[in-house]
Design brief:
By secondary structure, this protein is an alpha/beta fold. It is built from 15 helices and eleven strands. It has an eleven-stranded mixed beta sheet, sandwiched between helices. The protein binds glutamine.
């Protein structure tokens, strides 16, 4: 097996045993990026020099640990090359959010999740492409270029964390951070055949994650297998005083939850998640995966989430409303791009936003501003918040009966580039199965569970209650270790 194909836990073992160095590993990934990223286009910004320097420092730290007999204390991410979605701030490194308006923005501070990766001495390869301000499901809304699906370069990788998912799938990094506001970690993970975990709202600090919809945003992880997702989550989770919505509950040892045991675990299957119009191959693969869990000893229980059909309209009121408020800060004064020839302040703001934002972002700002405007606030925003509570209650009731819920991640496999760009509603429908989780603030994972007739990956979504990451990871791991789907590689 080549170095670039290693999982994080495999690479960690080899680093610890002194069989490979982080510099070799990092160089192998950089070579891979040079070889395939012209086609995949996962990275917006590559940092080869600093990555090799960080790898050298990691090697020195490993050597010191070996000398001093502290190897067992070595952090599992030490010397591991990772990628970061370009909506998460890395101090001193351009952070564009896939937008022209932040083309020149270099954050003067570090996101907490990134700070934690540095503390573990991880290696940062670069920043990955995404839909502008994470608004999208295909990464085609990036102002720079579209990322392609490594399984079929004529198809989208999903979005908005499409660059991170594609980079993991194409062996262009060992793992990556993404963000999930309505499915942006899980849906691209599903379409690219990798593992994507969205933690509970409040589990990972949002400090340094550029805000899209603040009550829904959460940093998540993309990985080659469930064990790596557990490792990455453990590294970035935890309370942070700089994010007032981060929750002060202890971070469990997520890796310890991976015991491969699901006997007696109650797995709910929501009847509302198998809908007309979904791709038959997706339904087949997901139903087979649920059967497989039953075969492992899980108890399958039918549950109902009756307000599921409202998730999409509710999300597309609340998310744009919050986005319109969050994006008001891009006025051509405080951050990034500003038109050069403005005649006055008003002209500067208006034309900066006109040229700086892309079509989807403008659409959301208009939808959100409308939903929040006097006279419409009660009818739209307030009502959406009430229905959001009903959606959350559906989950509370279901999780009183079952430990986890299994369903599809996305109604289809990867669609073609250009297929949905001119039809926002079709694009929005790509997230029907993922949005509810963000509205309810709960956690979930997408793992590979099969392929369609054209060889495109299908994802199984396993949801858990708030702070139920251990149960989700346990179920996902039990499935994964008794199947082979996650081991397939795209024919790049
Ligand atoms: N696709 C959804 C949207 O466009 C979700 C995006 C996300 O999770 N960031 O809003």
């Amino acid at each position: 097996m080549s170095l670039r194909e290693l999982t994080i836990h495999e690479a960690h073992r080899l680093l610890r045993q002194g069989e490979i160095s982080s510099v070799e590993l990092t160089q192998a990934l950089l070579d891979r990026i040079l070889a395939v990223d012209n086609e995949v286009k996962a990275y917006l910004c590559l940092m080869p020099e600093s990555a090799l320097e960080e790898a050298q420092q990691a090697d020195a730290a490993i050597a010191a640990a070996r000398r001093e007999g502290r190897l067992q204390e070595l952090h599992p991410l030490t010397g591991i090359p990772l990628a970061i979605k370009d909506i998460i701030c890395v101090q001193g490194v351009p952070t564009t959010c896939g937008s022209r308006i932040l083309e020149e923005f270099i954050p003067p501070f570090e996101a907490t999740a990134v700070e934690k990766l540095w503390a573990a001495r991880a290696v940062l390869l670069g920043k990955t492409n995404c839909d502008e301000f994470a608004m999208g499901s295909s990464t085609e809304n990036s102002a720079y270029f579209a990322t392609r699906n490594p399984w079929d370069l004529t198809r989208v990788p999903g979005g908005s964390s499409g660059g991170s998912a594609a980079a993991v799938a194409a062996d262009e990094c060992l793992g990556a951070l993404g963000s999930d506001t309505g499915g942006s970690v899980r849906q691209p993970a599903s379409l690219c055949g990798v593992v994507g975990l969205k933690p509970t709202y409040g589990r990972v600090s949002r400090y340094g994650l550029v805000a899209f919809a603040s009550s829904l945003d959460q940093i998540g992880v993309l990985a080659k297998d469930v064990a790596d997702a557990a490792l990455l989550l453990g590294a970035i989770a935890g309370y942070d005083w700089r994010d007032s919505t981060s929750v002060d509950v202890p971070v469990p040892d997520y890796v310890a939850a991976l015991d491969g045991e699901v006997r007696g675990l109650r797995v709910g299957v929501p009847r509302e998640y198998f809908i007309e119009g979904m791709q038959p191959a997706v339904e087949r693969a997901v139903r087979a995966a649920i059967e497989h869990l039953a075969g492992l000893g899980a108890e399958i229980v039918e549950v109902s989430l009756p307000h599921t059909e409202y998730a999409l309209p509710v999300y597309y009121l609340i998310a744009p409303a919050e986005a319109s408020a969050n994006l008001a800060r891009y006025d051509g004064v405080k951050y990034g791009y500003r038109v050069a020839d403005a005649v006055d302040l008003d002209d500067a703001t208006r034309r900066t936003r006109q040229l700086g934002f892309g079509a989807e972002v403008k659409r959301r700002i208009m939808l959100g501003t409308y939903a929040l405007s006097a006279g419409y606030y009660d009818a739209y925003y307030l009502r959406a918040q009430r229905v959001r509570t009903l959606i959350k209650r559906d989950f509370d009731e279901a999780f009183a009966r079952v430990e986890v819920i299994a369903c599809p991640t996305s109604p289809t496999t990867a669609f073609r580039l250009g297929e949905k760009v001119d039809d926002p509603l079709q694009m929005y429908l790509s997230d029907v199965f993922t949005l509810s989780m963000n509205l309810a603030g709960i956690c979930g994972i997408s793992i590979p569970c099969g392929f369609d007739e054209e060889g495109l990956p299908v994802g199984l979504q396993i949801m858990g209650p708030a702070f139920g990451e251990e149960a989700v990871l346990r179920a996902a791991y039990a499935y994964e270790r008794s199947t082979e789907w996650h081991k397939r590689r795209p024919p790049l």
